[in-house]
Batch of 3 targets.
Target 1
Amino acid sequence: MKERVLLVDDEPPILRSLARLLAFEPYALVVASTGKEALELLDQAATAVILSDYHMAGMGGAELLRAARLRSPDTSRILFSGHIDVELIRSAVNAGEVYRFLTKPWNDDELLLAVRHGVERCQLMRHNRLLNQRSEEQNGQLKRFNAELELMVASRTEALELRNRALTLSQEVLDGLPVAVIGVAPDGQVALANDMARRIFPGLLPGESANASLPEPFWAWSAGAFKEGSSLMVHGPLGPMRFEIMSLGDRGLVMTAIPLDQSEESPSGEHPHLGSPRLPP
């Protein structure tokens, strides 16, 4: 789309001269003979440059450009006048109301260059505004993402803390049992061992191989205990105990050791023995 350039002057011959000068430029030209008409045109469509005479009946050029700045901040505002007023120029430029000031009669090349630079300035202002808008949107999205991430981390942390407390409680419950409990993973590693199990087998540590941590008779017996459904009676450092195996399928197995009173020991043959397993003293 062609950039829009608004020409304002209350003298028709001046407007025609400006229109002829800019006719071969790639702009969409619109003209106004009063400040009020110029503001109405400014409200109708985006305008890259407004070029206004200073001395006009009714609303003057400086007042017009001041109002134009409020309505369309990105529009480049050019003021021209047949009378050079240094104080006027200084005050208008310092207030940011005027982008360029040209004298009348103007130099054609100077006026064309001023309009071209005004269009480029407007385009740059729009581009910067768009980048700022996108940056604000991205920052907003980033803030929302960080907030959501913090909530997720907090929720995950809370869940992990609950799980750790549950695991700690489970271990405390296991350690408080009057029964030795040993969990063995499918790969043969010790998954858990409660306090009594560690007292019976001091070298039994989670993560270690059960085959290396348990005496050979126990490991040999446990391999066939699933099919036989048998238990093993032994005398160890904690007195007589009965070892049993419970299969967890593809999750491994659990070995339990139940302390027995001397009176509870079964006659030989009721509980299969693998010789006399040696337990740590």
Target 2
Amino acid sequence: MKRFLFIGALVLAFAAASSARAEQFKGQVGLQMYSVRSVAEDDMEAAMKLASELGFTIVEANRLYKTTAEEYKALLDKYGLKPVCKNQAWKMYETEEGIQEVIREAKLFGIRYVGVAWYPHGFWGLTESEALAAAKRFNEIGERFSREGMIFVYHNHGYEFRPWKNGKPGETIFDLLVQKTDPRWVTFNMDVTWMIFPGADPVHYLRKYPDRFRLMHLKDLKKGVKGDFSGTTSTKNDVALGTGQANFPEILKAAQEAGVEYYLIEDESDDFRTQIPKSMKYLKSVSW
């Protein structure tokens, strides 16, 4: 009898431990509209309709293409899509007129997070001097945005991960950007592929800088692809979430602990109509 009681206790203990370990992903998931750019270029309404049909209610706004900002907003409303963020070309931040238009558009859309995904840099990637200049400008824009109820967002793109010679051992230029930007005014959109491609670890940065990442681009990089610091790779290397190099159970766990608010699926491949549903299915089942 004692033997059976002991075995039963072990089974119950194992079940309890397994239950405690199994935690489901619970983030707010949206679509980066750049994923459906091939549709939006010719027919923005068809792109909005497709986003809705794929099951999204949250989106990251993208280029307006042939529509006006007002037309874009009307289509978002028509298809029940809530925009939560948007990147603008860096040239928009170089003039007062550009900044005013960025603010006007963000208010029209009801967007809080507005930023940039590509900062001018040299051939070999972002240098320390370029990063310091960028951080200074990000802080200036972010402080101004804060008065408008907005937060400036920088989206990493892979060229920021060269070693930072004046930093601590193992630190990169991306560390410099994070450390020199004011958390009151500047946050970050972690693009998973553009962390992995240059050899960085998303989990490391989420744990090192908790509360600095409000957004995340969910992208996976094809297995076997070797990266660099260029910030560019073939769109054929975008694969459905959970099938590439990213360790999403660990990344999503760290992201939830770090306070990431929105998770945007971005699929740049030509096969996005097939891959996006697979990615959504994966997110509903992933656990740790």
Target 3
Amino acid sequence: MSNHALENAANALKNARCAIAFTGAGISVESGVPPFRGPGGVWTRHDPGKFDKYYFRRNPEEVWPLLKEIFFDTLGKAKPNPAHMGLAKLETRGKLAAVITQNIDGLHQSAGSRTVYEYHGSIRRMQCLDCFEYFDTSSVSLEKMPPSCPRCGGLLKPDFVFFSESIPIDVHEEATSLARQSDVCLIVGTGGEVMPAGRIPHIVKNAGGIIIEINLHETGYSYTTSDYYLEGKAGIMVPKLVGLVLS
């Protein structure tokens, strides 16, 4: 990567009319959050079939201890890293309209980002599958498995998207609408393999926008979509870029 690419990317963000960030697992790895796919990913150690909504409904006593171990014991303790902080700073300074994320860890909000579209939901909320009420995860005890609804005693499910479950339609519509209005998209830590979220940068590109990509390795975006590819760790490259944008 040349400094030239970094400077050009910074100028694009500086001059953007409406910029968005599109993030994935790679931005949270440095916070100790394991990715789901690829070497060492969650799905190499656990059967994804256990996290199908219908399987969960039939076998909550089996699935809930796995949910607690994989998601709440690990993600619940994670802290934002400099990449999350950098995006929050861009928003505070009026240089970023929103973060559109595939992550469920809530680290963007913990870092101070205010406008966050969570494509795949969040571990910060739970929903009762019987009375459909939502609860903050912090208000639910995970001492007893499976945890029960504080209101009706029914089955609680973390408010993130399970297999065989559709993504939140309101999030999809709002994120897609914002992407159509954006002239810059900053990709951080994702190759966009999961649809429909992965289409977000393409929507910006198809409308004539500029795509900046920060990833450890080249992805499907690198050759066909990205205008500037900045290779490296999110926790290093995002602060470098933000520093130039705000200087």
